[in-house]
């Protein structure tokens, strides 16, 4: 039976060898709009993995449409760089496209040398906190022409197709939405008028590239903006596009301002496929589904069940560029899945850094000479089977070293299992499984339940030690820590201890937030039961919502500073804060716990001492590095490296990249 993922498909006259489409993602790798070696090597590596088509971008259409870190398509001088990129992608096995876009009011004036962003109406953006300039009719027409000219450059540069971004809250979707379009001329008011700009852009692009050149539009299936477009409005827009100039539709989800999580781990795999399905039933052109499709089986099911004709897999191919090849060759267990953490992709962009990846330390660094083979192998003992240790062991083995990995507990993964415990975070356990499979593929011996000491090191006589022994929970100097109703967050997350009905969590950092969510979820109605009650109309939707968000415990999160979850990445923090509120977790900030009592604890807030009653007190006060073997390595005069939390307590991203870099540094003296 033919695998639907690898059946060919046509868009216009272009035959695409499989149904995997890598959608455009802002990488932050361009310089002054120009294609860099970093961009070329990033996409060349993805092309080697075998997706049917790669779409790069977005690319700018005029000077107000993006910033210098975007790929440029607004000037003829950008064409040679675009040609170089197209050649690199095709040479390595994939077809290629460019997405063109105008950010509209989502642009920042400080990225435009102080120029004011533009939009259909002068309505401030919640994201940028700036008010844009409303476009005049003449400026609208010039912008439409700019889209057409950019598409012409894309075609001239040698790309196989062009995509227009008509969603996500950027300029075209700003015209489409009544929230951001309050015009009273032919471009505002009724849906037919609000659609006019997007349709005219598509028609102008079609005129510029000719009838046989594939034209794709990426549009929203749902804006998730209260008071904005209805799904029916967007389906009508899709019909209008497909009946005119457009050859395929790629279905996007939400605006950047939307309060519905779209790409983070709490979003179930393939959750938004229904939006592609609804549009696919209304149009005659191929439809591409997107968002949180990170494994071949989910992709396959979506195609088989008629949700879409192709699947967009973006961050999935950042995490593992060989995903298509592994799926085609029946090696799906070897895939390193995107876990939707956003730590290296979106969070980096917020910091004005280029895209990287927690799961793949090579991502964004393909243009460097990374982990080549060593001239002479060393015998390396890696101590610690968490994410840093596993990454280090894999990197050492791939470089040609003789590696054995030692772990003191009964399983690999370390704190990944703690991170996976709270609701919506199970993908972190997937990474542990994936790395364990990689260890097996590389035939790296793993010794579990083994505590490495001086005797073992002396016996094995390694050339190098790589110490990734992790961290231990920090125990703050609070009176009453030894009381029986006090426990640690790590033990709670591992379900090693029971907790009472009324629980205090001391510490509002990442682990404290995760622990509070984990406890607050206890006793809520599971998804399967909610579905049963819903389809049988046993309860109202409002009652089901309450059952899904009301647990059996009352949880209070206490933080000394004035901000909860301050070190959590921007992409995920807001969603976790929403969940704390939904699950009725009480948060107390600016409060210092001064004493734990037999009936609860005492806090100092605003200069006053207050006693609070709790059945259980959970301490989530952070962690400290645990590295007992460095001194032994020095005593035995053995070359050693320290990685992950054993070196410095940080995020999972820090641990992966630290393990990778530590392994690279092991070479013959």
Account of the protein in words:
The chain is α/β, with parallel strands linked by helices. It folds into three domains: 4-350, TIM Barrel (Alpha-Beta Barrel), CATH 3.20.20.70; 379-471 and 624-664, NAD(P)-binding Rossmann-like Domain (Rossmann fold), CATH 3.40.50; 475-621, FAD/NAD(P)-binding domain (3-Layer(bba) Sandwich). An eight-stranded parallel barrel has the order 3-4-6-9-10-11-12-13, surrounded by seven helices. It has a five-stranded parallel beta sheet with strand order 16-15-14-17-28. A five-stranded parallel beta sheet has the order 19-26-20-21-22. Helix 1 (37-48) packs parallel to helix 2, helix 5 (191-209) runs parallel beside helix 6 (231-243) and helix 12 packs parallel to helix 14 (427-441). It is globular.
- How many E-type strands? 28
Radius of gyration: 27 Å
Structural classification: alpha/beta
Give the biggest beta sheet: 8 strands, parallel, barrel
- Strands of the widest sheet, in order across it, are 3-4-6-9-10-11-12-13
Summarize the structure.
This protein is an alpha/beta fold and 669 residues long.
Please tag this protein with its features.
669 residues, alpha/beta, TIM Barrel, Rossmann fold, FAD/NAD(P)-binding domain, 3 domains, 8-stranded parallel β-barrel, 28 strands, globular
